[in-house]
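hey so i finally got around to running both of the ones u sent me last week. sorry it took forever, my laptop kept dying halfway thru and i had to restart like 3 times lol. anyway pasting them below in the order u listed, first the sequence line then the structure token line for each. didnt double check formatting much so if smth looks off just lmk and ill redo it

first one:
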Amino acid sequence: MSSPKTAPLSNSPRARRDHAFEQWLATVRRVCGSFGAQPLSEHFSGRLQDLSCGSLRMSLAESDRLSLFKQQRHLDMERDRIFYTVLQLRGSSCVEQLDQRASLEPGDFALLDGGRPFSVDVSDQSRQISLILPSAMLDSGRQRVACARRVEAGSVLGKWARELILDAVANRERELKPVESEAMLTALVSLIKPAVCLGVDDDSLGHERLYVRACGYIDEHLSDEDLSPEQIARATGVSVRGLYRLFARHRQVVSQYIRNCRLDRCAAILRAGGMAAANLGALSYAWGFADASHFSLAFKKRFGESPSDYRRRHCH
């Protein structure tokens, strides 16, 4: 009995998806520059429309769930440093660059530095407008451009910038004159710049706020068995790498900070006495230590004496 015939590999759903995806990615590279990408679902459909007009270099991207990224190998192929303004029209996306990450909903936008690695993960049926801005229009003196920072749809600057981008897309149909497109680009940069450019002091203040937020989350979830840098980073709104950098600015290591906070909490319980302080084994397990011996060594290293001696000294 002959075996059933199978469809040619080139006709399989996976092959059709890969073909559609490669065509879409080729268009992205032609219009927007060198990128890498990875589809995140079994099926893929997408479209990219070049909306450029004069000084306005814009594109409309529609796609299913995928990850779009620039890595060092893509950066090496670029000549000019540019910034990408990503305006979310439909669906949602997550943009990440260096130590910053932001979730974008319809109407939100964020800036990405085309001269450094970044990634954009989009949901199903995502629709985005990408506007390319020359770096010379944003870089100025001691200010730093805050990339992957969400500019909310409801903010004044966010609303005006969004409306101007949509007007630019609509008016390209009548072929804007070069002087008109240049004026619109200058106006857009003037709106976007206050929302994304930080002075040195503002930058330090932003890091300090994130650090305080991370420490507050740790304090609230200190007894959670699954407390981890990944969990803290998600709650704080930074990448894991960014979380490590926040603590490094204070000459701290995240895991050591968590351990010290737990030891401090245990020391407070031992000073208070009572039932909670009676069983050192139960106390150590309750605050995330593998065993009483490990707890005792860590406690003595921090406070200079064993938990039992510490309890005895403070309770008698």
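and the second one:
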Amino acid sequence: DFYDFVSFRDGSAGALIGDVTDKGMPAALFMASARSVVRANVAASEDPQVALRLANHALCSEAPNGMFVTLLLMQLLDDGGGIRVANAGNNRPLLYRSAADEIADFGVTGLPLAIDPAFPYTMQEHRLQPGDFLLLYTDGLTDATDVQRDLFGRERLLAALWEVRRSGAEDIRQRLRLAVAAFIGAMPPYDDVTFVIACRT
């Protein structure tokens, strides 16, 4: 699993989070390659949709042994809270809307990168209001496993977020880390626990 912070061609900031299939050295090498390809195409693009389409086309010719990568790319617009999100097979992010006091899935997801070079990725737009946040995460968060082999799961994730929904990004980060650590206990981690929080103050 990996995350990164990037800049688009117009200078706007962005964040991405992804997960490469398989484990070990081949997966690590492909992750490094995928990260470089995505960064290069973000820098050459005006929005996440175009960046994903270009990166996907390039990675389809580079992926070894049928490997692929799930990836979500978010752009922060310089217009007071605007975001754009394009999703290639990653978990849908969770959006907290402070005005409605609710947490819900945001956007749609598409095919992982490096499978179909012609896949038509789409993009969703939203405006974060003060107090809103967006949580990007990979399945290592919800698939964290305790000694009874139970999964941390979506409901525990939502419960942990609900407790700190009106807090800042650092408090949310700490709460999620503590919730996962308390749940797995002495169980060795099965997968990376990776997430990124975008919070409008």
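quick thing i noticed on the 2nd:
Strands lie at 2-7, 13-20, 69-76, 82-88, 94-97, 102-105, 124-127, 133-137, 195-199.
anyway thats it, ttyl
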